[in-house]
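In practice, a research group might receive sequence data for several interacting partners and want a quick structural hypothesis before committing to experiments. The following worked case mirrors that situation: the sequences arrive first, and a predicted assembly follows.
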Amino acid sequence: MTADTDPVPPRDACAVVVRLLWDYLDGELASDRLAAIEAHLQGCRDCAGHYAFAERFLHTVRDRWPDATDEDEALRARVLRRLRDEGFHAA
Amino acid sequence: MRAERSLDRPTDRVTDRTTDRAQDGPDGVPVRDRDFEREAIACLPELARFARSLARDPAAAEDLVQETYLRAYRGYASFLRGHDVRRWLFSICHHAWLRIVERERRVVLTEDGDEAELETLAAVRGQADASREGIDRFIDDLDVGPAIREAITALPPLFRGVVVLVDVEGLSYDEAAIVLRIAIGTVRSRLFRARRLLQERLLDHARDAGFAAALATRPPTTRSTTP
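A structural hypothesis for the assembly, expressed as tokens:
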């Protein structure tokens, strides 16, 4: 199910726009619906606020997702060692 | 909007992998192995991140990464030139994890959300409530790193996996659906529920940190209405 078939209807536009918030931020909407939402956001302070928060939230999740760079180096060595048992030759 | 994706870019590979096992480079290293190291091993940080999102603990995640690379190496001859190595590895990793889950007789496949848009709406309402309490600005003011890690750990593995693929690695819904071998609608429902759960936990973290009290001393700002 993707919500990209119709442009945003004029009635109850806010309700539709907030439901499509994440589809919009993920770039998953068709161009006509994308344009309709962008036009709505230009004139709706409430919806624009919700979108701004959601964008910051997703940015935070992406940036703060835990990485383990030091562990990755050790893991890489162990993977290569295991692959060598399969006949792999590292450069 | 999400940054431009780097998937499905054609590679410059010139090797015919159906016959390259015996072809050695000038340094004696088989061309196939050199390609595998350059293309597949180079994806280890992203693959490890995905495996950690699925596995129950670090040791299980490491086993999953090693299993993935073993399977990938054994099947590398059949990997089609020009396809996305990273997505191929994600797919192998996910299948390996599903086999482990099945082996351990875990029941974890019933956690899909049914109404993706309702999850979005619930998240917006949660943010509107937080806005009225004055805590929705916490993301800019608090060190949310530990809270994010705690919230991620609390997510069911199936949800963590789709968040990693879409939000961290930048795959589209369609690409994530191919990797996970599930319907796009299932990707969307899992993703939206995971985001809503993460957001709720982060807002709870802000409340627990007494952030509302701190903000009460600040000048009031115009806040949005609940949708």
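Before designing any experiment, note the following. Chain B touches chain A through 63 residues (CB under 8 Å). The first helix of chain B runs from residue 31 to 39.
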